[in-house]
């Protein structure tokens, strides 16, 4: 799924359940995810192709620095 179709389906759900708060993904014009996503006071970095959160990047009250994107952490042996 790309960001724009995810966003569209969330907006559709929100219209049907107007009492609930939904996380709405922020998209770039070409349909990828914005590097920084925010919801209810928290912001975090995501992988732009998948929208999956990058572990360890969430912060409350300020925008995390998502440049450069940290490499996926390797488990210690």
From TrEMBL:
GO MF term (any one): extracellular matrix binding
Gene3D superfamilies given in the database record: Thyroglobulin type-1 (4.10.800.10)
Record field: compositional bias (Pro residues): 67-77
Keyword flag Disulfide bond: yes
Superkingdom assignment: Eukaryota
The entry's keywords: Disulfide bond, Glycoprotein, Repeat, Secreted, Signal
Main localisation: secreted
GO terms under biological process: extracellular matrix organization
One Pfam family of this chain: Thyroglobulin_1
Any single Gene Ontology cellular-component annotation: extracellular space
InterPro entries, sorted: Dev_reg/Prot_inhib, Thyroglobulin_1, Thyroglobulin_1_sf
Compartments in which it is found: Secreted
Alphabetized PROSITE patterns for the sequence: THYROGLOBULIN_1_1, THYROGLOBULIN_1_2
SMART domains: TY (SM00211)
Domain Thyroglobulin type-1: 1-66
Chain segments carrying region Disordered: 55-77
Protein's name according to its UniProt entry: Thyroglobulin type-1 domain-containing protein
Annotated organism of origin: Bracon brevicornis
